[in-house]
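queue> pop job 88
queue> type: inverse folding (structure -> sequence)
queue> payload:
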């Protein structure tokens, strides 16, 4: 099967961009400054910052859950449009509650820092706020959804624990070209909070609840495509999860965002490939060529976006479902993934 090409995990430099150049690599800590607009000709030619900003895809997304519930909170700006979304899925009843709105891009402003920032969407009936307090090791999400057709009222507040030593993030800067890249900060964390949905009160204790952050900024190609899956659960009381992506990295052996979290500790994983022999709504197979990752993802409920507006095309599948199989840690021991619930994406965006 060959020998795994090791990636160096190192502390992040002060800035994502220094001297006009991307600092590419895999890092164990967050940049003090995430400044992709300071990159020198990331699209191959000089462009003013407003035009660079238009080509920069940005979002913050959180997957949250416990034994019964799985949730997704997203504030996303693709620059030709934006999206706010909160989804709550009850695994016991198999009911999915979806609040989402496509918006003009100026409605969503993704902050340039995790250290002390907040972003939100608000209208007369609804509110979704993400508060980043990385300096204090905390993230907060506040949700209020009211008077929506075919949707019960929802009120929710979540607190996530990104304490140093308790949760180890993976922070990546991945090249898509010579000086063109994508940044992402991902971390599996304990979570606590509460949700009232249709009058039912639901509690989330940090001993059995989790959250995964994806803070993301990237100069994706005009045709953007990737496969992705993430899931989490508890192995004998130890919070365990993973992040696996096959994207447009020009050197995936050296630059990828694949990882395993086990009891708060981070382990890097090699590149993976996705196969869907029965189609996107059937089982997904996720494997690497070294025998460290062997997983099957079974979609249970599907989220879709299908949009074709001449110059802009989006073909998106984002199922929730169960993942089973194994991942080998760096010592070669199998970490069994036994029906961990999570989500995947098959994304194609032209625009």
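queue> result:
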């Amino acid at each position: 099967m060959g020998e795994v090409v090791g990636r160096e995990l190192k502390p992040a430099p002060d800035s994502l961009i220094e001297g006009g150049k991307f600092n590419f690599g895999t890092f164990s800590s967050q940049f003090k400054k995430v400044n992709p607009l300071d990159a020198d000709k990331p699209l191959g030619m000089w462009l003013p910052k407003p035009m660079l900003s238009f080509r920069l895809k940005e979002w913050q997304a959180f997957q949250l859950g416990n034994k019964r519930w799985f949730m997704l909170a997203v504030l996303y700006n693709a620059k030709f449009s934006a999206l706010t979304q909160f989804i709550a899925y009850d695994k016991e009843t198999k009911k999915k509650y979806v609040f989402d709105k496509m918006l003009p891009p100026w409605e969503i402003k993704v902050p340039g820092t995790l250290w002390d920032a907040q972003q939100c969407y608000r209208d007369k009936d609804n509110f979704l706020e993400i508060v980043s307090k990385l300096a204090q090791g905390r993230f907060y999400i506040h949700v209020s959804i009211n008077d929506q057709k075919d949707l019960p009222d929802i009120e929710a507040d979540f607190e996530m624990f990104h304490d140093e030593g308790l949760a180890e993030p993976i922070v990546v800067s991945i090249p898509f070209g010579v000086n063109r890249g994508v940044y992402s900060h991902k971390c599996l964390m304990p979570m606590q909070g509460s949700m009232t949905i249709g009058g039912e009160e639901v509690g989330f204790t940090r001993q059995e609840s989790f959250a995964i952050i994806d803070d993301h900024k990237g100069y994706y190609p005009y045709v953007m495509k990737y496969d992705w899956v993430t899931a989490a659960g508890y192995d004998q009381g130890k919070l365990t999860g993973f992040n696996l992506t096959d994207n447009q990295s020009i050197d995936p052996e050296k630059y990828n965002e694949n990882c395993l979290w086990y009891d708060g500790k981070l382990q890097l994983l090699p590149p993976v490939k996705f196969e869907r022999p029965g189609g996107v709504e059937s089982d997904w197979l996720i494997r690497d060529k070294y025998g460290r990752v062997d997983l099957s993802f079974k979609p249970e409920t599907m989220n879709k976006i299908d949009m074709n507006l001449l110059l802009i095309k989006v073909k998106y599948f984002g199922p929730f479902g169960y993942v089973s199989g194994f991942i080998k840690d760096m010592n070669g021991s199998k970490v069994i993934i036994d029906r961990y619930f999570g989500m995947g994406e098959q994304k194609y965006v032209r625009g």
